[in-house]
Amino acid sequence: MSSYNAAQSLGLSKKGRIAKGMDADIVMLSPQLAVDLTLCRGEIAFFKK
């Protein structure tokens, strides 16, 4: 999934893409759609053990 279009429509230029210089906010989901990992500004904010 991508949040690029939503970020652009809200004027959030550092969000919505995985690329150098972007904020690196990422959520990784399990096959059951449970949150396994959350990165905020490239740092681990949540990790399911």
Walk me through what this model shows.
The protein is of the alpha+beta class and 49 residues long. The chain has a domain at 24-49. 12% of the residues lie in helices and 31% in strands. It contains one helix and three strands; from the N terminus they run αβββ. The protein has one helix spanning 4-9, and strands at residues 26-29, 35-40, 43-47. It has a three-stranded antiparallel β-sheet with strand order 1-2-3, with no helix packed on it. A hairpin with a 5-residue loop joins strand 1 (26-29) and strand 2 (35-40). The termini are far apart. The model has no long low-confidence stretch (mean pLDDT 90).
Strand order of the largest sheet: 1-2-3
Query: Quick check: average pLDDT?
Result: 90
Q: pLDDT below 50 for ≥5 consecutive residues: which ranges?
A: none
Strand content: 25-35%
Structural category is: alpha+beta
Shape: globular
Largest sheet: 3 strands, antiparallel
Question: What's the count of strands?
Answer: 3
Protein name: Amidohydrolase family protein
InterPro entries: Amidohydro-rel (IPR006680), Metal-dep_hydrolase_composite (IPR011059)
Domain Amidohydrolase-related: 1-44
Pfam families: Amidohydro_1
SSE layout and pairing:
Blueprint: H1 4-9, E1 26-29, E2 35-40, E3 43-47
Antiparallel strand pairs: 1-2, 2-3
InterPro entries: Amidohydro-rel, Metal-dep_hydrolase_composite
Protein name: Amidohydrolase family protein
Organism: Planococcus dechangensis
